[in-house]
Every structure is written in C-alpha cells, then in structure tokens.
Amino acid sequence: MTEKKPTRSESMASTASSTTSTTSTPITALPTEAAIQILLSPDGYYNYLGISKPPSESMGLKYQEAMGGGGDSAKSSIDLDQVKKNYRRLSLKHHPDRKTGDAETFRMLNRAKVVLSSTKLRREYDLVGLDLEDDAEEDGHHHEEEATSNTTTENGEGQESSEAHQEDQKDRGSSKTETVMGHLASATLAAVLQVVVRTALMGLVSVLISRYTILTFLAMGLLALLTTKMYKSVKKALGPKAKLTLALMKDALSPLVIALGIFCMYRGRRFVVVAATTAAAAGVDNAVVGDSATAADTLTEIITYADWSWTFLFGETLVMTSFLSNSFENNLPKLFLGAFSTLSLLLSLWLRGRFWRYATILGFEGVIALLVVMAFPIMEMILESIVEEKMRKVGEKIRAHDVRMKEMLRRKKKEQSGGVS
C-alpha cells in the first residue's frame, strides 16, 4: 500500500509553528476553505503568502526595537516586495468579482498583507501567531480600491496608487496601540496641569488683583455678569415654573462666591494701622515749639495698611475652596466640602498672599508634572515587556497545540485511508 502524498494545504498547516527557511515558499492559490484554514492557523499569514518568518529569538521588545530600528534588524525584517508580489498573485484568484473568489477570503488576505507590511502589527502578530486586532469593518471599505489597484498592476499600471494605499493602512494599524498605561498617564498629567492652572489663577487673584481697587472691582463686575448669564441659562433650561435648589444653582452661584472672596481679600488689605510716636521719637525739638508744648501736642501718626488680616484669610480660603469644589461634580458630598475647606484654610494660613510662596507651590507642581511625563513611559515599557513575554509563551503553547492537532488529524486520515484500502 502506497502512502498518500500530503497536499499543499496539509504541508503548510503542519509547518505553521516551525521556522521557515531563508527563501520564500512558492505560493499557489488554494480553494476558499483551505485558504481560510491556513490563514486562521498560527503564523498562517506567513504560510499562505509564502513569506519566511523571522526567527523568534530576533524579536525584541517594542520599545527596544523602536519600530524596526533596534535589535538585529537583518534577522527580524522580511521582504516587503515579496509580500506585495505574492499578495497580488493570490488576490487575482480570491477577488470576489472572480468565479473562484470569496469576499471573506479576500478580506483576510488583504489583512495578512497589511499586518506583514507593518512593523508594529507584525510584531504583535509574531507574539501569538494570531491576528488579535483583525477588524473587518476597518478594512472592508478598502476592498474596492485594492481590487482596482491589483487589476491595474497586472498590466504594469497603478503601482503608485497601491503603494500609497498600503502606507495609509499601515498608519491606521499603527494608531491602535494605545495602552492602559498611556490613558492613565494622560489622565494623571491632565489632572496635574489642571491643578497648576488653578494654582496660578489663585496666585493671580491673591497677589495681584486683590491689591488694586480697579482690578478688584473689574473682576467682581465680570463675575457678577457671569453669574447673571448662568442663572438665566439655568432658568431657561429648567423652565419658568421649575423650583431652583441650591444644588442646581451651584454652578451659577460659584462666580458670585468667588467675587465675595476677592472683595474680602481686597478689604482685608485696607485696614489702617496707626502708630503714635512722641515728639522725641519723631525728632521734634521742644525749644522750637515752645515751652508750653507738651508731649500730647507733639504726637504724630504713622499710617500704614495691613498686608494680611483675618478678613484676607477668610477671602483667600473662600476662593480656594470654590476652585477646589468646582473641579468635581455638582453632587459633592459634604464631607469632601469640609475637607476642601480645611485644606484651603491651612494653605491660606501659610500662603498669606505672598508671591514667592505661590511660586514655590507652582514649582513643586511643575516637578510633579515632569515626573509624570518621565515616569509613565518607563512604567509603560516595563508593563509592555511583561505582557509581551506572557503573550510569547501563550503563542508557543498555541503553536505546539496546533501542531499536535494537525498531526492527530493526519494520522486519523491515514488510518481511515488504510482501512478503506
């Protein structure tokens, strides 16, 4: 009894997880079911397009390789011209407009070309051997353009259109690499920058605006105008018969509270401090004013303004508490409001409207923002290296399991064919 020679689809599937040779495998378009089976198998994109897969030991971390710029690029790169050539040859058979074609097979073939042509997508594919980001909706609207490009390239035309379309697909694939750490870093940096902006505004009000009468009343007028417009918008949105509560009016009343705080800060710096001095202290000679002059007649007054007072403390605390509470939702628990008020009071006791103290806080917040910018990319690289290592191990198990299953199916077919004969 002669042994049945395995077909191309069986031989390609059996070598799905093994390292191919340095030369490209000759390709032949298979029937739809056999083509889909190979494309869905581990490393099927390489096998069906006849492309040699880079050895696994040459695949470094994503950031170490830097989009193909690091590591052993000679071993980890593939022949992109061969990918295009084999793709065009196979697409002529699998295009949906042809009798032997099929829409799903053509879509998967197009996705295989996109993945193998993109360094980032190919690295992700090499980890597990499966395309975890296959998106039919994303690539579906490109099929007609790809078909036109492939048809024209058969006659030596449309080469530039196909190249430009491929680059567009590579860019689309590369834009889907945002990670959880990236989102966390963005949210943290946005929160820090928001604190920096509010601290700068608080310093501007405390150090500059509350010192001058014109700036104080100009700011109060603008805030009162803003309160009026916000009240009208809330009233219009709720209707004329709606009952307005304090929770609903929180946003509208917030500018008015800030205006009250600014006025308290302004008024707290306008307390007159009078220091009485005697004539001797003032340098007045009794002989000049006469013998009848007494100490009471030669009293002088030194008038100064208070740089800080408890009224100023109240206003600064009020404005700071408003800034903190406006950073959160309307339904803020009373416990949080009390915590914000206490924190604002403690900060106001230390700040006291001093420019350099506000500058110190801004510098500290700037250092925190810099640490966020520097630390999160490092944390992201560490996390990605851990995830890639885990995915690589999973990919090895998937490939080994696929080989075992293919071997079992081959033995079963061999036994069935032997029994029939």
Describe it:
By secondary structure, the protein is an all-alpha fold. The longest helix is centred in the C-terminal third of the chain and has 66 residues, at 355-420. Helices cover 67% and strands 3% of the residues. The protein has helices at 8-14, 32-40, 44-49, 62-65, 73-76, 80-94, 103-117, 119-128, 136-140, 143-153, 159-174, 180-208, 213-238, 250-268, 279-282, 286-289, 310-325, 334-351, 355-420, and strands spanning 272-277, 300-305. The chain has a two-stranded antiparallel ribbon. It contains 19 helices and two strands.
Brief overview:
By secondary structure, this protein is mainly α. It has helices spanning 8-14, 32-40, 44-49, 62-65, 73-76, 80-94, 103-117, 119-128, 136-140, 143-153, 159-174, 180-208, 213-238, 250-268, 279-282, 286-289, 310-325, 334-351, 355-420; strands at residues 272-277, 300-305.
Give me some keywords for this one.
421 residues, two-stranded antiparallel sheet, 67% helix, disordered N terminus
Blueprint of the fold:
Elements: H1 8-14, H2 32-40, H3 44-49, H4 62-65, H5 73-76, H6 80-94, H7 103-117, H8 119-128, H9 136-140, H10 143-153, H11 159-174, H12 180-208, H13 213-238, H14 250-268, E1 272-277, H15 279-282, H16 286-289, E2 300-305, H17 310-325, H18 334-351, H19 355-420
Antiparallel strand pairs: 1-2
